[in-house]
């Protein structure tokens, strides 16, 4: 057996005791939608099952992350352990040392992982995802990203940290979708606050501090948003600018991966909500699929304009030089058409970006129209 551990932040309501909940629900935390809880969750899984899904063929390509996620979800629903990090209680005692915030506890534990030569990917899930589905997706993402690292000494492991917002986790035609869009927008302040907490923690790691334990570890931070998780990011960017008093955005991430993004296809253009997203990272990559049924439904049944995750950017020649887009249409299909960030070739492409591997015609092919537009082959 293998024990999987995932660190998380959430603004969902807790089910059961606050600091040792059984789960998290479909509503916001009772302490407001912008309140964040931090903690970790563990589950035991079969090592052989994990290896099976990591190598299982899907459409003649090895790696079934969606099947892996479904397996982990079943195990989570049967048995798991959640440990929520306690927030310090207010005290009038001026002598006692202040207790660390829950976010600081989480960041210190994540830093220990990164000191073991691990990059960290922050994952924001999409629409129609309950708590256990979100955790399973994040755990599967980490396992898929690392499926070749144990066979290659030059590859370092990557850890995944989950931000879970109260997506409904059930389908009710248009109502569930519209409800989730509203919840995604309301979650934006929580995400922005989390980014600022992360920035403040990173500032404590600067060399001016004498404490060796607080030195920078040298690893990289990345952000991966799936589907409506990109809509969360869109509004978090707006909230971040306001919370930061209109100052320059902190460059927190090496890469931002926007997978099947359920946002408008003109979102990067001037005066649009994500025109400044590139300031948060050294590189932004958009993955889209022309055959994505979820994007089609969002376009035509919900009254949205064309989706970024369906046809890519409306005007690719106007993209900032940090932004690239990758057309996955030729290599995804069937049930993998929307969650393809967990699947075979796309997942490997994300891993290559994390590892800083240069692309060539055997993996990606540049479009003849733009050097920032690629096709997976």
Can you describe what's shown?
This protein has helices at 47-55, 65-78, 102-115, 131-145, 174-186, 188-203, 229-243, 293-300, 308-311, 344-355, and strands at 2-10, 12-15, 23-28, 37-45, 57-58, 61-62, 81-84, 119-124, 158-164, 221-226, 253-259, 281-288, 323-327, 364-366, 373-376. The chain has 377 residues and is α/β, with parallel strands linked by helices. The protein has one domain: Rossmann fold, CATH 3.40.50. The strands form 3 sheets. An 11-stranded mixed beta sheet has the order 7-4-1-9-8-10-11-12-13-15-14, sandwiched between helices. The protein has a two-stranded antiparallel sheet with strand order 2-3. The chain has a two-stranded antiparallel ribbon with strand order 5-6. Helix 1 (47-55) runs antiparallel to helix 2, helix 5 runs parallel beside helix 7 and helix 6 (188-203) packs across helix 7. The longest helix is centred in the middle third of the chain and has 16 residues, at 188-203. It starts with a strand and ends with a strand. 45% of the residues are buried.
């Amino acid at each position: 057996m293998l024990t999987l551990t995932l660190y998380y932040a959430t603004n969902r309501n807790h089910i059961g005791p606050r600091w040792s909940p059984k789960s998290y629900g479909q509503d916001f935390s009772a302490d407001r939608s912008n309140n964040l809880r931090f903690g970790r969750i563990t589950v035991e899984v079969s090592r052989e099952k994990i290896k099976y899904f990591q190598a299982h063929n899907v459409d003649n390509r090895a790696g079934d992350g969606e099947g892996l996620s479904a397996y982990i979800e079943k195990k989570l629903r049967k048995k798991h352990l959640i440990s929520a990090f306690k927030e310090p209680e207010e005290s009038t005692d001026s002598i006692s040392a202040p207790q660390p915030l829950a976010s600081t506890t989480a960041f210190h534990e994540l830093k220990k992982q990164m000191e073991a030569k691990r990059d960290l990917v922050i994952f924001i899930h999409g629409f129609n995802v309950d708590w256990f589905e979100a955790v399973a997706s994040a755990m599967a993402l980490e396992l898929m990203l690392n499926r070749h690292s144990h066979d290659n000494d030059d590859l370092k492991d990557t850890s995944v940290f989950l931000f879970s917002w109260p997506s409904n986790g059930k389908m009710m035609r248009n109502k569930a979708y519209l409800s989730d869009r509203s919840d995604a927008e309301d979650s934006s302040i929580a995400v922005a606050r989390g980014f600022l907490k992360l920035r403040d923690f990173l500032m404590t790691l600067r060399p001016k501090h004498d404490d060796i334990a607080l030195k920078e570890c040298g690893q990289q931070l990345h952000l991966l948003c799936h589907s409506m998780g990109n809509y969360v990011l869109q509004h978090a960017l707006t909230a971040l600018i306001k919370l930061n008093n209109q100052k320059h955005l902190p460059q927190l991430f090496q890469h931002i991966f926007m997978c099947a993004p359920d946002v408008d296809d003109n979102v990067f253009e001037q005066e649009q909500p994500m025109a400044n997203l590139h300031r948060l990272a050294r590189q932004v990559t958009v993955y889209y699929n022309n055959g994505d049924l979820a994007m089609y439904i969002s376009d035509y049944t919900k009254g949205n304009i064309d989706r970024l995750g369906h046809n890519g950017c409306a005007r690719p020649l106007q993209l900032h030089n940090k932004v690239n887009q990758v057309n996955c249409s030729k290599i995804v299909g069937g049930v993998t058409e929307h969650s393809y960030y967990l699947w075979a070739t796309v997942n490997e492409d994300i891993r290559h970006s994390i590892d800083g591997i240069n692309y060539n015609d055997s993996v990606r092919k540049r479009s003849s129209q733009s050097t920032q537009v690629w096709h997976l082959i």
